[in-house]
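Task: encode each sequence below as structure tokens.

Item 1
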Amino acid sequence: MLPDMSEHACQVVDITGKGATFVSSTVPPVRVNIVAYLEELGRVEVLAGQPVPGGFHVTYTATGSRLQRLQQRIEWLKQKNSGAAETRRHPRFEPKDKNSSVTLPDGRVYTCEVIDISISGAAIKTEVLPAIGTYVMLGKMKGRIVRYIDTGVAIEFVKQMEKQLFTQQVA
């Protein structure tokens, strides 16, 4: 999607942790901000670079931890596509609104940041680390803590989200 809100189909090739090449019949001017919705990566903000035959180069505008997560996801996808075993049952996405809350069984509520989410679970950044197996509420979704991650916990939902509702709220 270009700044004028027009949408154009493209194919991504030669993706790396620094940028990619978009194959498209529409080539925007250099340094134009673009919002791309990429399969298995979600929403990615890029800056148009030099044109190439059939398309143009892009670089990511994300910085810090957001860029690091994008780079990790790209590396994971490369490993997956090279034959590495897939361990996740459902694709994960970065939600539109990352702010949420986690409620413990005793009623205490803590703010958290949703790192990624699927119809069956979520990874959240939080200061509180409930024991593995503890049932919690992430927003309105009931789930249980299944593992610890670097910045928080992973939650498996008791009941999977409906795909249509998930698409409306997350993707």
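Item 2
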Amino acid sequence: MTSLINFDPRKIGSLTAKTVDQVIEDKGLRYADVRDFPQLDPLLLPDIQTCTYEEYSYAVQEYNRMIGWPQSRLLNQPVPMVPYQIQYEYDVEKYHTVIVNKTRKGAFTDGRIRAESRLTFSKYAGHDSLIVAGNELNVAVEVLDRFDELFHNGVTDKDGKKWAYGDLVMRYSKSPIPMVEFYNGHRHFCAAASKSGKAQSFRGLDDVISVFFTEAAHSGAIDDYPIYTALTPLLANRDIGDLVFESTPNGKRGFYYDITMDAKSVPKKNHYHYIEVDYTEALKYGVLSKEYIERQKKDPRVDFPQEYMCRFTTTKRAAIPEDEIQVITDPEKQPEDLSAFLGYEDMRD
């Protein structure tokens, strides 16, 4: 990490970056909503179409240095972003529609909201973003809390002026809809996917630039396609909008499983860029500890391949678990025909 942190793109001279004003003009953002707001050093907001990956990595690290490094639970100290977090951020900016199959406890959610905080100063200005939790609303609110906390230290603009939290965030409201609103017109909402899979509270949102669905495989809905159907049109009229489905696997069912299989297939069967990071990468960069992983492997209650190895096994919450279903092939052991007893004719051949 030392060489990356010390890298200075000013010495290369090949970086093409846009100021917030240029982005607003190019993308036709709402000028009425863009108020006095800091413009970051262009080096922190590189143009994904022209910068090198090394320049992009520098931007991510320097931005996170400014707002405060992630806190390592293992080391109990701040640490730089790890390579797969940077790659994740880069891939979303480049491909826009991304599905992430991840290990548990790999710091993916933290990486994603840090990316969204940086884009608040450029592409997301004047638009709305949405965080959706597949499990519970309190989880979505917790993620929004963590997003809000990223601005508590303030930022330093391109001219060296310090802007405090109150200069950036106009309000953080948790009722009726949890939302962080910024002085540049950006609003960051959060919601939970309905377990019924039918009525979804996020249907009415417009001008959405980003949808981040964390734990997308864990909505608990028997049929979760209505959730997918409600989310995807939010970005229908915006080619540069970011749609991210991030989750640990949860059985061979639901839209997350289907999209993952289609994205992994050769040739690809959909337009999603696929990212897969298992526990070995998190171990490699010190996000997970070897001792913790060994305990998880030995725990019979943990479906280790599914939780940490990105494999779709079976959901333990299924009404009838897959591994408990047996196919009877012996004709002598077939169940008795009860059609006459139940009052209807047997329609089988």
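Check on item 2: The chain is about 30% helix and 15% strand. The domain at 82-342 is CATH 3.40.50.300 (Rossmann fold).
End of task.
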